[in-house]
Design goal:
single chain, elongated, 2 helices, mainly alpha
Length: 58
């Protein structure tokens, strides 16, 4: 990821956010392992979102 330009990273963040949204749409149909995965993905997204102002300030 360190080799990507800022614009490329921002494009990937949008793709990741879309993936999280789609995963939430299917949350009622997830089995136990998939629900655990969803929880981890949501924590990752929150962490990335929380660090976004830092990335933008550099």
């Amino acid at each position: 990821m360190l080799r990507f330009e800022t614009d490329e990273l921002m494009d990937q963040a949008d793709d990741f956010s879309e993936f999280v949204k789609e995963l939430n749409d299917y949350s009622r149909r997830l089995d136990k392992k998939e629900s655990i995965f969803q929880g981890r993905v949501l924590r990752l997204q929150k962490g990335l979102t929380a660090d976004a102002p830092f990335v933008n300030s550099i």
